[in-house]
């Protein structure tokens, strides 16, 4: 299954984001909260934003694949999500607003297109 591959890759990115938070916490000796540290705040939000969007989007991608969407469209949607999450997390961590915005645009497009495709298959 195509979505399984993207889910596995995204899981690795999630682990990397988790390790980034842990690394900053250890370096700054902040065990709880963000201690007012901007780099830790950014890492926590990159991690949090990832977990807020990726699971639901993966569910939608699974459903469009299950409904029989052509494999090349599934690859395109999965690639959009992966690139979007990568750009957003690094744009947020490195304070590069254009990269962060591009990542969110790709994530939202993946959500909207997947939802639309599911609705279209229900009508037909």
Task: Describe the structure in your own words.
The protein has about 120 residues and is mainly alpha-helical. It has one domain (about 1-124): Up-down Bundle (Four Helix Bundle (Hemerythrin (Met), subunit A)), CATH 1.20.120. The chain is built from 4 helices and no strands. Helix 1 (about 1-30) packs antiparallel against helix 2 and helix 3 packs antiparallel against helix 4 (about 95-124). The chain is elongated and about 55 Å long. The model has no long low-confidence stretch (mean pLDDT about 95).
Strand count, sense and barrel status of the largest sheet are: none
Count up the domains. 1
Q: Helical stretch count?
A: 4
Find the structural class using helix and strand composition.
Answer: mainly alpha
What is the 3D shape?
Answer: elongated
In the CATH scheme, what's the topology name?
Answer: Four Helix Bundle (Hemerythrin (Met), subunit A)
What's the CATH H-level superfamily name?
A: Membrane associated eicosanoid/glutathione metabolism-like domain
Strand segment tally: 0
Please state roughly what percent of the residues sit in beta strands, choosing from under 5%, 5-15%, 15-25%, 25-35%, 35-45% or over 45%. under 5%
CATH class value: Mainly Alpha
Shape-level CATH architecture: Up-down Bundle
The secondary-structure element order is: HHHH
Q: If you compute it from the alpha carbons, what radius of gyration comes out, rounded to the nearest whole angstrom?
A: 16 Å
Instruction: Look at the structure and give the mean pLDDT.
Output: 93
**Low-confidence segments:** none
Helix content: over 70%
Which oligomeric form is depicted?
single chain
Distance between the termini: 24 Å
